[in-house]
Amino acid sequence: xxxxxxxxxxxxxxxxxxxxxxxxxxxxxxxxxxxxxxxxxxxxxxxxxxxxxxxxxxxxxxxxxxxxxxxxxxxxxxxxxxxxxxxxxxxxxxxxxxxxxxxxxxxxxxxxxxxxxxxxxxxxxxxxxxxxxxxxxxxxxxxxxxxxxxxxxxxxxxxxxxxxxxxxxxxxxxxxxxxxxxxxxxxxxxxxxxxxx
Length: 197
Hints:
Blueprint: H1 2-23, H2 32-44, H3 48-66, H4 68-87, H5 100-120, H6 127-139, H7 143-157, H8 164-185, H9 187-196
């Protein structure tokens, strides 16, 4: 139980830190429900975390009916990560920002580690990550791969609010997120982390 709570808190902080310090300053998108939250934020200025919570409602209704265990294991991840994104939005450390390309990679890796840390304990940040978990479970493939595909679809839809250069940076960020998530959730790594704790 302690490790699950730690994974949620640490993972949520890494996600929040990556978004607020590396993505938002350059209008970089993430994929999934976070990407949708960023699109709404860039277009209308709404809070990212609040948007994530609201847009996740239909997916959670579906999960409650068909994937009850995923619902239970991800509701906390959704709420905490969304609250952390809004709560820590004022924590901006410009000294960390180097170049848009490097920030896209660093931010993506932070998100990937944050999401992956939760996936290790079958916790998700909800939204489209929860949807990806359900797909991965149904077709028996690595959840990181499914998340990557879903993320690319969301980023591509963001072309209405970002420039082509920002779209390229967002694609790089999503790739970094997908790589970090996949590496943390491959069976040998996941098994080692769980058994060592």
